[in-house]
Design goal:
Jelly Rolls; single chain; mainly beta; 322 residues; elongated
Length: 322
């Protein structure tokens, strides 16, 4: 029978298909496969400074960029990269440590001592990532609108992060494909403003006036930016990537009396549950009946399939079933 894929969002199951077009509204895509070339087709190529190619989130060498505390990648300064809301930004992130006060990730309008564009940072004291945008005012809560995730990050681990910024009190944060609750802050103007500066990845200006520029100690991979809000289904496809999580147990089967029939799923899920209560990738079927299996990923995706075994008595001599 067909597999079924779902996303658990606010206790509702949303069907996931492969019909979404992630190229729609795509402004730029830096895969960081040894360069800062824009793979979106828009030719908004970045300028990389002091970065080092490293292993990516899939363990493939030279397919991500490491930022060593002096490195950054600048985006070109073009009006198209200063869009009105909504905006979606997604990337894979690996943090080396929490040794500095402020950990920076990106700023779409790199400005000193003022809040412009969309930016993302993390306070080391909280280990919680956040996103915000500025209205052009000085560095204070009255000049920005922000949302911080409630999820606590760990060092030396890859995370997939998606920010969907639609308005002052309308921002979605996804961590590893799953919606992450969070809290809003700031009382700035509801409209985003830009100073007309280039964007940057791996550094931000200090949240003090005056203050230093903070640089990332960590790695970034597959950096995307859209001028629209992605759907939950699109975020899921972006996170799952080319990995095939589909479950296919095959068609209904004949179970000969006194025989056993093993059925299996890939051992790639965070949790596996069979209708029998078993939790291993392989189930040994010894009785006729319907059997289903669910594979869970990140506690918000499940993949399911069902198969029926029909019983048949063995012929004399045990050479087949009727």
């Amino acid at each position: 029978m067909r597999y079924f894929v779902s996303i658990l969002v606010s206790f509702l199951f949303v069907s996931l298909t492969h019909s979404q077009d992630l190229n729609k509204g795509l402004l730029l895509h830096y895969s960081f496969d040894g360069n800062a070339k824009d793979d979106s087709g828009n030719n908004y190529h970045g300028t990389a400074v002091n970065v080092t190619p490293v292993m990516d989130h899939n363990g493939i060498p030279n397919r991500a960029y490491h930022f060593d505390g002096t490195a950054y990648v600048d985006m070109p300064n073009v009006p198209e990269l200063h869009p009105d809301l909504p905006v979606t930004i997604a990337f894979w992130l690996y943090i080396d440590d929490f040794n500095q006060v402020l950990i920076p990730f990106f700023d779409t309008d790199f400005s000193m001592d003022v809040y412009y564009g969309i930016f993302s940072t993390m306070l080391s004291s909280s280990k919680k990532i956040g996103v915000g945008y500025g209205d052009g005012g000085s560095i204070s809560p009255g000049s920005r609108r922000s949302k911080g995730s409630d999820e606590i990050f760990e060092a030396r681990r890859w995370y997939h992060v998606v920010f969907i910024v639609k308005g002052a009190l309308d921002m979605d944060i996804y961590i590893n494909g799953c919606p992450s609750p969070g809290r809003y802050s700031g009382t700035g103007d509801k409209k985003i403003k830009y100073a007309g500066n280039h964007g940057t990845i791996g550094r931000v200006d200090s949240e003090n006036t005056p203050g230093p520029i903070y640089y990332l100690n960590g790695s970034i991979d597959e950096f995307y930016m859209w001028d629209r809000a992605l759907t939950a289904e699109e975020v899921a496809l972006l996170y799952l990537g080319n990995m095939n999580y589909d479950i296919e147990l095959g068609g209904d089967k004949i179970l000969c009396e006194g025989r056993e029939y093993p059925i299996s799923v890939q051992p790639i899920y965070d949790r596996i549950t069979w209708s029998t209560g078993d939790t291993t990738p392989t189930l040994i079927v010894t009785k006729p009946g319907k059997y289903w299996v669910e594979g869970f990923k990140e506690n918000c995706f499940y993949f399911r399939d069902t198969v029926e075994f029909k019983g048949s008595k063995c012929l004399k001599g045990g050479c087949g079933c009727k």
